[in-house]
């Protein structure tokens, strides 16, 4: 199974864009800073170049994971041990019939949204409770990540429609 690095790289830029808007002082930025216990002075003292580069690298890792959440064909390839060339002819026929099934922005967004609600929200909420942060803090961050990965997953899953990427196993 081929990995679409271009889709992942493009999706990895989404957290920066959505974060720029979400955490803007006119949106949730002031509330988030207050709930996180941050000040304008502390925010200014950061190495933004390092933060942005690190964010992109970590977002690429999330993109790799989101492929497996949103693109069902990875599961089919996993069922044959990861190498379609070693699979039985029935696998090739299956991929020919269903190799592009559910490859859309909407489908990827749906699976990523579900991941946000059932994985990201609990994860962030548990951390927030142990950090003695408010529910407001947890909900702002969980909603941000749910929204962000919803878009990322949509891009990663729906990229097929953009570039005509061939999922049918060729022998």
Strand content: under 5%
Number of helices: 9
The low-pLDDT segments are 163-171
Q: SSE string, helix = H, strand = E?
A: HHHHHHHHH
Instruction: Tell how many strands the DSSP assignment holds.
Output: 0
Give the overall form: elongated
Question: Helix fraction?
Answer: over 70%
**Number of individual domains:** 1
Mean of residue pLDDT values = 90
Helix/strand structural class: mainly alpha
Description:
The chain is an all-alpha fold and 171 residues long. Helix content is 75%, strand content 0%.
Helices, strands, pairings?
Elements: H1 5-11, H2 14-22, H3 25-36, H4 40-44, H5 48-70, H6 73-79, H7 89-98, H8 105-130, H9 135-163
Keywords: Membrane, Transmembrane, Transmembrane helix
Transmembrane segments: 6-24, 45-69, 109-130, 142-162
Protein name: DUF1761 domain-containing protein
In short:
With 171 residues, this protein is mainly alpha-helical. It contains 9 helices and no strands.
Structural key phrases:
single chain, mainly alpha, elongated, disordered C terminus, transmembrane
């Amino acid at each position: 199974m081929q990995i679409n690095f271009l889709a992942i790289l493009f999706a990895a830029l989404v957290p920066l864009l959505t974060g720029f808007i979400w955490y803007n002082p006119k949106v949730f930025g002031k509330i988030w800073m207050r709930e996180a216990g941050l000040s304008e002075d502390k925010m200014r003292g950061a190495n933004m170049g390092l933060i942005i580069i690190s964010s992109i690298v970590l977002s690429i890792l999330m993109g790799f994971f989101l492929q497996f959440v949103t693109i069902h064909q990875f599961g089919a390839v996993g069922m044959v041990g990861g190498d379609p060339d070693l699979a039985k002819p029935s696998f090739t026929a299956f991929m020919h019939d269903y190799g592009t099934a559910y490859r859309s922005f909407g489908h990827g967004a749906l699976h990523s949204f579900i991941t946000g609600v059932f994985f990201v929200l609990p994860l962030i909420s548990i951390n927030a409770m142990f950090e003695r942060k408010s529910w407001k803090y947890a909900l702002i961050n969980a909603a941000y990540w749910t929204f962000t990965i919803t878009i990322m997953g949509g891009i990663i899953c729906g990229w097929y429609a953009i570039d005509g990427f061939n999922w049918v196993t060729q022998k």
